[in-house]
Amino acid sequence: MPLPADRTALDLLDVHLEALWDGTDLPLPREPVRLAAEGADGLLHWVLDQLRRVPREPKDAFVRQIGSLLTEFRCRRCPWNAAALRLLDDTYTFAATGPRRHEDWAHDVHAVLHRAVPDPRGWLRLDGDRNNAARHTVPAYPFDPPAASELSSLLYPLEAEAAVAALGIMAEEWQSEPAPVRSRPDRDAVLADARILLDRYGPTARYWTNATTAASDPAPDFLAAGLRGTESHGFLTSEYLNGLDLLEDLGLIAVSDDEVGVFWSFGAY
What's the pTM? Predict the structure, then answer.
């Protein structure tokens, strides 16, 4: 089934803005301009108007303003995007969703970790390493995941509320976190954003984590432990690239009948 024209145009515009933000100067796709001229989508009108107003020079200022425009565009596009940015955009995290195509969902998770599939709904993907040169050495960087056939042996099931808490603490830093989520005045807002993200996968979704504390308890107290106090089976590469050691990680996987969501936090030094 073909995608609706408005969604296709929004997807193209997202890709264009991200390329500009990465420093690649590409021509503006025709479809968003055509649809905006026909009055098809108010968001298209708004973002194209804002883009035309951004001065191209100096280059560094242009890139910064494009980054801000891209963030605002994504937030306006849907509440899920806005929640993801509020919760996870300030920490070293990976957040992506892919289609569920296999009875054994480990194959679908593996595809997401290797960036082999797009988001089925065209929603936000948080992936600061998408253009990292380290991927020439380790294609799934920062991941070095086990084979799909071995993946489930390193994961443990979680109850839904524990999954919310595991995702919520990904708003913390691994080292020198001044305000763990458990003690923040906006604790409830942080957890509400985590719920928005997981609600995407529906009431029958199942959750899995690499946190070893879940091996004996599907409802560990992630908030009390905090990110720093959570141990896990590592899914990261041991390669020392770009001056970074990847030492710690916490992952959460959401599995529904149609989608798999992958959320991961990294400790890098």
Answer: 0.90
Closest CA to 98 of 131, 133, 141, 127: 127
* Domain span at 118: 83-268
Helix axes 42-53, 30-37, angle to 10 degrees: 120
Distance CA 39, CA 18 (A): 24
Identify the three-state secondary structure at position 269: coil
Query: 1: Cβ–Cβ under 8 A, 6 or more apart, which residues?
Result: none
Band of pLDDT at residue 125, cut at 50, 70 and 90: very high
For the chain, percent helix, then strand, then coil, each to nearest 5?
Answer: 45, 15, 40
Residue 124: pLDDT over 70: yes
Q: Total domain count for the chain?
A: 2
Q: Which of 48, 77, 106 is the endpoint of a domain?
A: 77
Query: Has residue 41 got a pLDDT over 90?
Result: no
Tell me if 101 sits within 8 A of 110, measured CB to CB.
no
Which of 28, 50, 77 corresponds to the end of one domain? 77
Distance CA 31, CA 6 (A): 9
Q: Residue 253 forms beta bridges with which residues?
A: 208, 262
61 plus 143 within the same structural domain: no
**Whether residues 157 and 249 fall in one domain:** yes
